[in-house]
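User: My instructor asked us to take a sequence, write out its structure as tokens, and then describe one feature of it. I'm not sure where to start. Here is the sequence I was given:
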Amino acid sequence: MACMALSGMKDRYVHGSSEKEQRRLALMNKLINQACLRALDPGGEEFVLDVGCGTGEFTRAIARCLPGSSKVIAIERDPAQLATAVDRALADQEADLVDFRVGEAAFLPLRQNEMGRFDLAHTRFLLEHVNNPLSVVETMFEAVRKGGRIVLADDDHDTLRLWPEPPGVMDAWRAYFETYRKNGNDPFVGRKLVQLLHQVGAEPQKNTLVFYGGCAGMREFKGIVHNLYEVLGGAAEEVIQAGLMSEKKYIDALYALRDFSRRPDAALWYGISWAEGMKPRYK
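Assistant: Let's start with the prediction itself. The structure tokens for your sequence are:
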């Protein structure tokens, strides 16, 4: 098994786990979960693993689609995120829907009789935040049974487009994803998902994009732009301290993005990379 991180580096989630960030994640889940569920197409799976579940909204959405006899295990390394996941499940009277566990993605806290038995192992927006994404996919591959599915959903930050393009926003976006490189992570891992599946021995079955975007006049459009605003705003300190963009230019870009959200002709496109592989049945 490959080591979890590159030498001398530790996996780091650039956005942290503040209450503000958790509210942003809740908004994002509302905006994308149904589209991701359609791509995942859960159905008859009895044993499901969600790696890097965050605040757990999407894990519970998956669980609701499964037979009552199914078991869903969700792994999250951040205790604050995991506590939020448990609290929200309790508040929604879904405490028994998912087995939430704290642990590292490349060293899954699974029992001996659980490894190699999952029908489906899924991860979303995790691989971009780890120094060695291959080690995570290797562990997911080991966790599923023969014929089981491994589903990877992640970002290729180069897919973002806004029009009419607000001044400075794409410069700020590029500065933001340069913080990933600074931390030893890959802001373009989304384009490499099929390769990762092949490298661990899975048979690639699907490669697509889940559309995330919209235009002025759509009810959810302001929420989509607000999510982008919060992503950039949350990374401002790190971008500026790293010298990737001046404070004035970065703040001006945030103001321009705010103004963009009010334009009657504004449009935004983004694609969430989505790849699926199967563990060979006869090897």
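For the description part of your assignment, you could build on this observation: The first strand starts at residue 47 and ends at 51. Try explaining in your own words what that tells you about the chain.
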